[in-house]
Amino acid sequence: MAPGITLDNAVEDFVFTKTAGSEKNHATVTETLDLSSIAWAHCRESSNNFISDFYTKPTLPMLEAIIRTTLDDGDNDEDATTNDLQDYVAGLLGHESALLVPTGTMGNQVSLRTALGNPPHSILCDYRGHIMHFEGGGPSGICGTLVRSVVPANEHHLTLADVQRFATLRNTMYDCPTRVIALENPMEGRILPLSDIQAISNWARERGIHMHLDGARLWEAVAAGAGSLEEIGKCFDSIQVCFTKGLGAPLGSMVIGKKDFIARAKWSRKLLGGGTRASGVIAAPARVAIDDVLFGGKMKAAQDKAQRASELWTELGGKLLERRETNMVWLDYEGSGVDMEGFFKLAKEEYGLKLGGVIPERLVFHYQISDESFEKLCALFRRALAK
Ligand SMILES: Cc1ncc(COP(=O)(O)O)c(C=O)c1O
């Protein structure tokens, strides 16, 4: 710990004392900053926010990790904190190598650009895929590829039968052969069963088709018991994971794969401007996030709250659009006879809760939701569903 700096898990009570020598008069300027006045001390601001887990706030232990980090060049593989994190995450997923990137979108696009090579080619993915709808058209703009989006026959997740039906294996002058199968797990809170992933992976690998996973929230699937990171990781040739969202780091994602894939992915990262200099600033808090939130059991505890909320909603006569599987609860307002706008107004004005957002049916749980906010949510449910 640097002299004069006191940081701890408890938030508001600490004092940050900065001492700086003045060149001019050699006097020492001591400035005392109450930590409660800096944004890092305010992760409790997200304690009432059910709109998305990307509202999680970085914490003081993450700031402490940033203070302690190495500050060498990440773009040239010189930063020990970044290299350690890359090795750590690659190992967790049963792979050889990994590459830090600033965002999940870049992680997906770096992976796809690296996997695709020269056209003609196409990507097969679920019709709801993030790469399809929320990445600014990256697959066409950056990769020049055709995206074949598939509606799963079971209305839940892609299976081998879906993939076999829609993959392009023919390779005449008319075709864009399927070069990548891009899965997402969880898919908007829904878990892809490991056995289905394995079946698709075996089939794809026999045909030389690259398997990519958008695992922005893969940690949530693992916390929910959908398989280990390694079991899932081994089914894919590239994986993108985010350190933000439910893990709560300030930024950063990682692409994971074989050594030669990651070596080529560095070119794609460079092309997209994603190499960073003092990358330890990203890597250090990301490590805190994995160890504290995932392995510290906090993600699972947040999912338990999600489960209790979904049970209460149905016990009170409410309907769900679907069953809770990870940290998301999907409320069927219409089917429950609840006016959605009135519900949000009540939540805000009487209970101080933030609900709604671009996907209004969805309540997202994360580890910073406080017990107090959870109790208020239960009270809101009782009031809204009172007969
Ligand atoms: C499934 C999925 N993939 C990728 C991303 C992109 O992550 P980022 O916002 O870091 O670019 C998101 C973001 O919400 C996501 O939900």
From TrEMBL:
The modification N6-(pyridoxal phosphate)lysine is found at K245. Its cofactor is pyridoxal 5'-phosphate. GO terms for cellular component: cytosol. The keyword Protease does not apply. Pfam families: Beta_elim_lyase. It comes from the Eukaryota. Residues 50-331 form the Aromatic amino acid beta-eliminating lyase/threonine aldolase domain. Belongs to the threonine aldolase family. This is L-allo-threonine aldolase. It comes from Pseudovirgaria hyperparasitica.
